[in-house]
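ok so i was messing around last nite and threw this chain in just to see what happens. nothing serious, just curious
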Amino acid sequence: MEVTNTSIPHFPKVNEVDPVVSKETAGAGKTNSENLEKPITKEAIIDKVDSMNKFLEPTSTNVKFQLHEELEVYYVQVIDSKTDEVLREIPNRKFLDMYASLDDLAGLMMDEKR
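result:
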């Protein structure tokens, strides 16, 4: 395979284009209250602010490392700090328990002499 020296292509320069703004959009920035059909009430504002605060409320969680005694392996628990509820385990503790019981069963089958 032969490699040849090629030059970089030159593209013609493009003139900058002014953005197109319609007359309707340019006039719409004056005031939003003119475009609204319903008047804004204090109760509506309070309701929207409350819903935004609930949406933006950070989830306070803690991470805890636990040792699985039978396997001597650590797993992670994600805990909600307000309710002390375990949100997630990585890997799942039930899976580790199942693995430990299967390991014990396999050990009984292999280590037992007849």
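not much to say yet. The chain has a mean pLDDT of 75.
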